[in-house]
Each structure stands twice: as structure tokens, then as C-alpha cells.
Amino acid sequence: ALDGTEIIDALLTPAGSANPYPIYARAHRLGPVSRIWDEMLLVPEYRTVHQLLRDSAFGVADAQARGGFDPTFHEHSARLLLSRSVLENNAPDHARMRSLIASVFTARRVAALAPAVRAAVDRLLTELADLGADGTAVDFMETFAFRLPVGVICELLGVPESDRFRFRDLGSALSVLLEPVISPQELATADAASDELVDYLGELADQRRAEPRGDLVSALVQVADGADGRLSDQELLANLLLLLVAGFETTTNLLGNGLALAFEHPWAADGLRSGRISSAGFVEEVLRYDSPVQLTNRLPLVEGLSVAGVPLSPTGGVLLLIGAANRDPARYDRPDLFDPTRQDSQALSFGGGPHYCLGAQLARLEATCALPALLSRFPRLAPAREPVRRSRLVLRGYQSLPVTVRG
Ligand code: HEM
């Protein structure tokens, strides 16, 4: 395989995380796999990313693997905690935890949230209208894109309304753990955020254990203490924290990325307003074209593996470029064209295989409800200033997206 160092170096610059797509195009031209760092492979190809996510010979980096890569791993409470969640475990622990969570976080429970999502969208649109009534610029990220998903996931979990405002900074501090390169300062902030949320969620779980309600925390506490499977206390807290943070960090970015694309493609925004373009089609294309999650990793679980014909060392790993796979010219006709009328797009934004996103249905519910309602309520919605991207490679979204609602 060719040397892909130039690709990963470019992605890790500020310009690269601001706009990775020209770099992904270069990665595609290098071939389906290239070599980076010592023993890592970089995979931009749709077919190979799709296949590796489902291949049981590959797994996520668990606590043991992480401890091997990073001797300070055990000193960081945030890293340790995340390693006890579904996201960082392989079979059999992953299957045990995932089936317990899935038994309470069901499609039925999510579908039942639809009226609450619609009500929350209406309420937030009214707030946006009030804030922007005199023509002032309002930050869409702060006033809508964050508040909708945080409100919905808190409603689902049973977190009281008054505690929600703290989560924006805590979620942002924790989600940095997914980035391939982290500063000591960011790591310290993540540890503090993790400690704070663990205390908070521990108290909430104790309350619900004593006095169960109809919410997801009560339900998960019950199955965690149940006869089959079981979750340890640490696993319960790790998975609650993951659900909370994953519940809004990514969906916030889906809403922001979606609105920015509506601004860049007025015909699509008008199509969404008039119903000529389906909200489902629009949201699927936002997911493909500008995925809120841009990459993930896998490690070999057995020896002697190769990726697209390139041998992989047993101590190596694979970087799966979801954002590049979603724009693979071998998979998509005119991949750099934003086209919400595409059929059967099947972007890899929610991953695939055993770790397929547990919240995909919820994220789609929120975005398909919010984006058309937003555009219809404000026919002259427009950007007020240049939006500012977050300087993150993995979780792609805006720091701020100032809008005027009246025009
Ligand atoms: C896993 C993306 C929203 C909960 C994942 C994975 C991706 C992803 C790519 C797989 C990671 C991997 O295989 O390495 C997204 C995107 C979202 C979103 C793009 C929004 C647009 C949500 C929401 C929730 C959620 C709303 C919770 C309510 C989870 C959980 C996992 C996960 C718990 C781990 C599943 C496992 O390891 O078995 N997500 N997600 N996500 N997601 Fe999401």
C-alpha cells in the first residue's frame, strides 16, 4: 500500500478539520488502503469500511488495548469510564451490555417520543422567533441545535429539566475523547467532566432504584440489577453517560450541518418547505454529505489479517474514514453533489455491524421533525455571519451558526 502519512497529517491541521473533503478525495486517489504512522492503515473506501464494521475478526479498542497503547490510560477517569461502555467493548461483554440496553431503549420507546419531539420543536421555534424578533442575530447552535436533542435525551432518560444547561460544556469536554490527538489540558477537562457526570448520574440512578418511574434510567437500573446478564455499577454509569452525551453531541451537529446545507442550497430548502423534497431524503443526504461522525477505528482480534489485500500487523489498527466512504466515487454518482433526492444512499454515518448506533432512529426522528418545521416557520431564515466550525476531526459540526429569522 502507498504511504498515506500526507493524508492524515493534512486532516489533523485546522484547515483539514475545517474542510476534510478535498483531502478525502486525495485519499481515494491513493487507493482503497494506505499506510500511516507505524502500523496503522487508513481506509477511505465505502466497500471496505462497510465490510470491516461487520467483520467479527475486528473489534473496537477496549481497555486492554488502550492500556497497551497508552501507559497513562489507567490514570484518566474519563478514559476508564468510557472503556466500560458498549462503545469500547467487544464480545462477549459487548453483547451482554448491548442486549440489556436495547431491551429498554426500544424502537417503541423512541416512537412514543414523537409527540414530545414535535412539542419541543414548536416551543424552541417560538423562542427563536422571540429572540430574533427585532432582527438581531441569534446563534442557532446554542438556541436550537443543542437544546432540542439535550431536552429530548433528558426527557427519555428522566433527567430533570433544570439540570440540562450544564450539559453543553460537559458533553463537549467528554466528546474530545474520540479525537485521535488530545492535549493534556483537554484530557484533564474530560476527567473533571466525567467525575461530575458520574456523581450526578449515580445519584439519579440511586433515586430511581428507590422510587422507579417510567423513564429509561429506572428501566436500565432494573435490568442492571436483574437476574440475567446484569450490569456492574460502573457499567451502568458508563452506559448512562454514553447515552446522555451521544444523545446530544452528534444530533446537535446533524441539525447545524443540515441548516448550513439548506442555506447553501436554497432550492433544497424550498423543496423541503413545499414538501417536494421529503424530510427523510433531506436528512439522509445531510448524513451522507456532511456526517456528524467522520471516522472510527478497529483493531485486529486475530492474527494474520489483511485489509483490501494489504497485510495488517497484529499490533496495528485501522482508521475507517466514514466521511470519505460517504463520498466514495465508486459508490456514489457525483459524490460531491448535495442531492436530497438520492435513492438508497445508505451512508455509513451511524456505523454498522454490532456497534451500529443505538440512537439512529432517535436522531432521525429529531432531524426530520425539526428541519422542515424550522424552514417553514421562517421563510426568510438566513445566515447572519459566517458560521464557525468546531476544530474537531471526529465530531464534525459548528461552534456557532448565527442566523436572522426575519430577513
Ligand atoms: C454508536 C453515530 C446519535 C447512541 C454510534 C456509532 C456511530 C454513531 C458512527 C458507531 C461507532 C463505532 O462503530 O465505532 C451517530 C450519529 C448520530 C448519533 C451520526 C446523530 C446524528 C445518537 C443518539 C444516541 C446515540 C441520539 C443515543 C440516544 C449511541 C450509542 C452507541 C452509538 C450508545 C454505541 C453502540 C455500541 O457500541 O454498541 N453512533 N450517533 N447515538 N451511538 Fe450514535
From TrEMBL:
<dbReference type="InterPro" id="IPR001128">
    <property type="entry name" value="Cyt_P450"/>
</dbReference>
<keyword id="KW-0479">Metal-binding</keyword>
<dbReference type="InterPro" id="IPR036396">
    <property type="entry name" value="Cyt_P450_sf"/>
</dbReference>
<dbReference type="GO" id="GO:0005506">
    <property type="term" value="F:iron ion binding"/>
</dbReference>
<dbReference type="GO" id="GO:0020037">
    <property type="term" value="F:heme binding"/>
</dbReference>
<keyword id="KW-0408">Iron</keyword>
<dbReference type="Pfam" id="PF00067">
    <property type="entry name" value="p450"/>
</dbReference>
<comment type="similarity">
    <text>Belongs to the cytochrome P450 family.</text>
</comment>
<protein>
    <submittedName>
        <fullName>Cytochrome P450</fullName>
    </submittedName>
</protein>
<dbReference type="InterPro" id="IPR002397">
    <property type="entry name" value="Cyt_P450_B"/>
</dbReference>
<keyword id="KW-0503">Monooxygenase</keyword>
<dbReference type="GO" id="GO:0004497">
    <property type="term" value="F:monooxygenase activity"/>
</dbReference>
<dbReference type="GO" id="GO:0016705">
    <property type="term" value="F:oxidoreductase activity, acting on paired donors, with incorporation or reduction of molecular oxygen"/>
</dbReference>
<keyword id="KW-0349">Heme</keyword>
<dbReference type="InterPro" id="IPR017972">
    <property type="entry name" value="Cyt_P450_CS"/>
</dbReference>
<keyword id="KW-0560">Oxidoreductase</keyword>
